[in-house]
Amino acid sequence: MENQAQNIHNRIFSERLAELMSSREVTQIMLAAGIETGQPTISRYLGGQLPKAEELLKLARFFDVPMEVLIGADALRAEGDAAERKTAKEAARLTKFQPPILAIKVKSLRDAAARLRKTAAEMVATAADLEKQADQIAGPVTRGRKPGQKRA
Q1: First-to-last C-alpha distance (Å) of the chain
Q2: CA-to-CA distance for 60 and 57, rounded, in angstroms?
């Protein structure tokens, strides 16, 4: 289960990175230069490899987005919220005909929704921790400034 969750995180990250690059017309070479790494590294990220905290922070700052967006924590939180709404709706529908077996199914659905919400919350916390670690390593940088742009 943990490996499956990791694969989902990797896929979401690579999709988000590709979307950001496409929407801003940034090539792998341009991005590599912007975060001071090599093009093969960007290729690995697009292939699903998650970067280390410092690189993730550089990517977030390059695109001027929260790290949470890059790692997809916002998407998982939305999925958890949607699952919880669906579960509540299904539970309300099933309470009309609540034989004991259905009560077990409703509990399982509620438990699954709670686990999704917890996972999303943990990802948000992880993103915040990674940002703090990266700030400690790289030092705080003013948001909104383009990579390579000097301070005024």
Answers
A1: 49
A2: 5
